[in-house]
Amino acid sequence: MKLNLANAEKELSDYLRLVNSIKLPALHDDVLIFMHSLKRKRLGSGPYPDVSLFEASNRILSDMVILIGVRRLLTNPLVGDVRLPFTEYEIALGVEGGNDLTAIAGNCRLVGEAFNVAPSFFQSKKSSMINKLSPEKADYRLIIFNADAVKSPDNYIGKSEPSMLYLPVNIWVERFNVNLKPLLG
User: Fold this and answer.
1) pLDDT digits (tens, 9 = 90+) for 76-124
2) How many other C-beta atoms are found inside a 10 Å radius of the C-beta of residue 105?
3) Is the CB of residue 63 less than 8 Å from the CB of residue 69?
4) Residue 141 burial by Cβ neighbours in a 10 Å radius (0-12, 13-18, 19+)
């Protein structure tokens, strides 16, 4: 999917509408049965109908990091002291392998990864993504992550340089900055 200023808001709104269509598993008196349904029972709705709520949650929250992060880059292309020259980003949602996002402007190329992770796993996930991006031929490498994974998100923005940019996003605040008209019908 390609995101630019003309379609980013609509794509994000459409995605949120799809997320809100998820039919949650019914509560069950037996806690183990309920936990099993969260981990194993197919959802049958939403952006990932063929996986469990547990797996869909992981994918959806990472997708939200990508969508909100790219929207942020389109409206404000400054990450720390680095101004990005891109007006369109190619993003891949919910997939493993390849890069989560790429962008090209003239001869400049960006590759990026995005994730939503618990604070306890942040360092290992960040290291894994740096290793994944390092061999890529690109002028800019970008990691977008959930801001609540670290104590001081602004410190990562300050570390940004073209060879490795860090963009923490707060999906819990930013999701409310979406134009809600498409969600309301």
Assistant:
1) 999 999 999 999 999 999 877 789 999 999 999 999 999 999 999 999 9
2) 14
3) no
4) buried
Residue 34 is assigned to a structural domain of this protein: yes
What's the total number of domains in the chain?
A: 1
Q: How far is CA 154 from the centre of its chain?
A: 18
Rounded to whole angstroms, how far apart are CA atoms 4 and 170? 20
184 in a domain, yes or no?
no
The continuous run of DSSP H or E covering 124 comes out as helix 122-133
Domain annotation covers residue 185: no
d(CA 175, CA 86): 23
Q: pTM, whole model, 2 decimals?
A: 0.89
Amino acid symbol at 2: K
Domain contains 150 = yes
The domain containing residue 42 runs over which residues? 2-177
Tell me which long-range contacts 78-82 makes (C-beta under 8 A, separation of at least 24): 79/142, 79/157, 79/160, 79/165, 79/166, 79/167, 80/157, 80/158, 80/159, 80/160, 80/161, 80/165, 80/166, 81/160, 81/161, 82/140, 82/160, 82/161, 82/162, 82/165
CA distance 158 to 81: 8
